[in-house]
Design brief:
- Two copies of one chain form a homodimer.
- By secondary structure, chain A is α/β, with parallel strands linked by helices.
- Chain A has two domains: 270 residues, Aminopeptidase (3-Layer(aba) Sandwich), CATH 3.40.630; 155 residues, Glucose Oxidase, domain 1, CATH 3.50.30.30.
- Chain A is built from 14 helices and 16 strands.
- In chain A, α1 runs antiparallel to α2, α3 runs antiparallel to α9 and α9 crosses α14.
Amino acid sequence: MTKYLAVLLLSVPLWLGAQQQSEEADAFYLRRIYDKVLTEARCYEWLDYLSHRIGGRLAGSPQAAAAVEYTRQMLDTLGLDTVWLQPCLVPRWVRGEKEQVRIVNSRKMGAIDLNALALGNSVGSGPLGITAEVVEVKSLEEADSLGERLRGKIVFYNGPMDPTELNTFNAYGKAAGQRVWGASRGARYGAVGALVRSMTTRLDDIPHTGSLAYSEDAPKIPAFAISTNDAELLSRLLREEPVRVFMRSTCQSLPDVESYNVIGEIRGSQFPEEVILVGGHLDSWDVGTGAHDDGAGCVHAMEVMHLIRRLGYQPKRTIRCVLFMNEENGLRGARAYWKWSDDNKEYHMAAIESDRGGFTPRGFTAEGHDDVFNEKFKKVIEWLPLLEPYGLGLRRGGSGADISGLRGQKGLLIGFEPDTQRYFDYHHTAIDGFDVVNKRELELGAAAIMSLVYLLDKYGL
Amino acid sequence: MTKYLAVLLLSVPLWLGAQQQSEEADAFYLRRIYDKVLTEARCYEWLDYLSHRIGGRLAGSPQAAAAVEYTRQMLDTLGLDTVWLQPCLVPRWVRGEKEQVRIVNSRKMGAIDLNALALGNSVGSGPLGITAEVVEVKSLEEADSLGERLRGKIVFYNGPMDPTELNTFNAYGKAAGQRVWGASRGARYGAVGALVRSMTTRLDDIPHTGSLAYSEDAPKIPAFAISTNDAELLSRLLREEPVRVFMRSTCQSLPDVESYNVIGEIRGSQFPEEVILVGGHLDSWDVGTGAHDDGAGCVHAMEVMHLIRRLGYQPKRTIRCVLFMNEENGLRGARAYWKWSDDNKEYHMAAIESDRGGFTPRGFTAEGHDDVFNEKFKKVIEWLPLLEPYGLGLRRGGSGADISGLRGQKGLLIGFEPDTQRYFDYHHTAIDGFDVVNKRELELGAAAIMSLVYLLDKYGL
């Protein structure tokens, strides 16, 4: 196919309109990008090392340090203009011993161990653990309505992700508040611990961790995610009898640790002050190996830099690959980057984050400052005819946590959007591994992002 | 979301145009279909039984008989107007003992066993096997060009699937001729056996079987698929030294066996003579459990019948679910169905086959008789605004092997098209199992097909 396109391009007659010529040139270039990626990409091999060999990379962990060093070394092999480490202090949360969550008093079934994971940032239960009666709610609002009836109890948030949402991120957005705010909401009314149904539409035995946020107005109580099967079981038992649960965790927060964002850059030849950022986050949860979340996003961004060199493309604008540290439980890397960028009066014309996994690309979601969004988004929409042949759409929507703080620079903030159906099967679990990432799907993501970078760089906003 | 739509619909003011009203009603109904499927579908549980419990279902095998009985029983539970078995005689090919394909003379590496599977319909090698020198070609044309130089040799077809094809079925279409015709093409020039690179873009150790077709003008020689890693290895060795391979298989073709297509039908209330077929094929290869190929297509079709009842939908036209037997190595079930349908002067207004796996839906491809295609396709295109919110497109393209013989009835022949990136990781292998099918992706496929059936039935062609 490329051969035909090549012939086509070489034979573009001189009398063709400039507009049509540049459209054909762009279509040809996008096809070149896809051909290169599908035959010479390195992202899959990089992801193998980052996820499979290094493993889970929670901020402050030895694996996180290994990931910083590995990705820096790989970027060093690409012949970029600069590769550097940007320091940031990150929290150091450690899970400690294997968690225990056990139903202790079921007349029907005796003692039942539940598949559980402490939530990130959670305090430990103390060495003796906690035993208390469980009260089930389906939402934060229901916890409020119970109020004092939660005193001395373990509050159990069992609001499922809505399976009828076609985009699973919408279902996640509606349910995840239970995990983030549930513990403090319960503690405000005297709850002594929290259990949260895992954030997935699947029914299985795999618990999904993720961060919680404690609020100042309540004591910090230990919180755990339990698998959806176990949440169903617990809910069923609660309909028949009062249920007491023993839970124990030894997780704790240690002093902050110095860590880094990994940054690689190619300076623009004409408008070096206009930055196009491509990025993902380098840290991942400690369980599993962070292959989809967000190893995939990191190697997508690195592959864009690799492709620019392989294609011999000379960017007019500065293309910067940023691998952010500590997205999962603090966003410290991102905050350090935002401050540094603002202090240097930088302008991010566009920032693209890939943090929704390495699945088959569907397109991009964009947001931005109200003053400029509509006008800039309109320009990008004009490129749709070039992107649609690759199954790529564009819609208004969230971008990415690590780039959200760049809004004030009034560029376009863009989130890469792959197919969402499988993401929450693996998200924050022990099974988010290299083996559930498909090579072609991962490569097509890099090609999609590179295609948009090419158009952003060539035409600007 | 449905709630809002419900309110929206109930509040449609009377002064609204009929056109707009029916559009809103259709949008609402499609949303209802998706809500039902994502909360009450049975297709995933059916697929578990069909693939995981029953297993590989090659035509004429005990598992194929079990699949006929199981799906008939399941259709019987749905309260259809008729459920029946349509007899057909099918070939009975058996693989026999585990195949052996071994490099016997490598000076560097000694004897090397290759991951191999006999191709479907292949003759056996005889009890002593065959040992001969290997000659590599990249295409049928290259085999022709070598001609007599293949005499006494094992011809090795090593033309890879083109990774730059975005739709993997296009790459398969370009490469699969080596598997189907390669053996006879080589035998025409005196080759004594054939090896074929497995049909996948992956590099791994998993051989992919599939059927070959012997032509009359050449002796029948045994043919095997080898894994892509082993094809690369063999090719590498051939560059350095002559390579002799020993290959042995005991596969054979036994006398034809009586089998069946499984058919379930709901008669149309207004135009019963206009048939809308939904189907897949019940047989699968003997290795693996035929989960994506084509258990998924069967349960998609069954789910459509289940949905019609669950939704309380009264079709104007006859909706017929057909689970075809022997698509993989004979198409005998399909031929019996075509003859029976033509003899009864039936008119299939539309036939939809799902035989590309149970992945996230992308849309449909349609073909038909030249006399009528454009006009009928134009009508379907008008429904795009209703389908696009669900990520569904429509394009001209192939439909399905089992329905291809209905072209003469001048209806529209439609192929369901899911995402194609993963299909050839599993196609015709031991790893095409229930565990690589995602519940939501499978259910969305059934919803997509039901949505099109609803529009076809309501508006006709």
